[in-house]
Write a structure and sequence with these properties.
Strands 1-2 form a two-stranded antiparallel sheet. Strands 3-4 form a two-stranded parallel ribbon. Helices cover about 30% and strands about 10% of the residues. By secondary structure, it is an alpha+beta fold. The longest helix has 23 residues. It has three helices and four strands, in the order H-H-E-E-H-E-E.
């Protein structure tokens, strides 16, 4: 003898449909299996719905009671025991999760600040960035914008420097200050 299991559906209408179908099946199929009459075999409809909890069928008529607390819930896993403080601290302070100590720190030869090896010093980069911004402002004043720039190389001259023979035909920008030690001349 085969047994059928009816599973809950999260949708109330679908649950009612499944209960009615189950009631019809009990009414028509069970007497036929006991030998009273032959079942009316015909086309069948199979409905796939997410199942939550199995519920035994109490009767053929649909009940009018309100949905229970367990209807329509998707139960999630919950811990059985509380984690102790020691276990939590061991997990959080695991040496693999801690910040690694940097061993590639060196002193910048230009300014004396600490920096990573093979990385530009942040303090020196800020100075280079500020000087470059000032040079760009001088270029903007001289030419009036980026679209008026000539298609030649640019040479920056500081106080006391004169253009050489290589600088003929190039755009010359003059700065009224001493050349910084980190700004090498080409």
């Amino acid at each position: 003898m085969a047994a059928l299991v009816l599973l809950l559906s999260p949708l109330p209408r679908l649950r009612g449909l499944l209960r009615r179908c189950w009631g019809r099946m009990e009414r028509d199929l069970l007497p036929a299996l006991s030998g009273h009459q032959s079942p009316p075999w015909g086309p069948a409809l199979a409905v796939q719905a997410p199942a939550l909890l199995p519920q035994p069928h109490s009767g053929a008529s649909e009940s009018t009671e309100a949905p229970g607390l367990l209807d329509g819930f998707l139960w999630m896993a919950a811990p059985k025991k509380r984690r102790t403080i020691e276990v939590n601290r061991c997990r959080r302070r695991n040496p693999n999760k801690l910040i690694k100590v940097k061993r590639n720190i060196d002193v910048c030869p230009e300014c004396g600040n600490l920096k990573q090896k093979h990385v530009l010093c942040g303090y020196c980069y800020a100075k280079v960035k500020a000087e470059t911004r000032l040079i760009r402002m001088e270029i903007h004043k001289k030419e009036g914008g980026p679209f008026n720039a000539p298609t030649v190389e640019t040479v920056v001259l500081y106080d006391g420097e004169k253009p050489t023979e290589k600088d003929e035909g190039k755009r010359i920008i003059e700065r009224a200050r001493k050349r910084p030690s980190w700004f090498v001349q080409n």
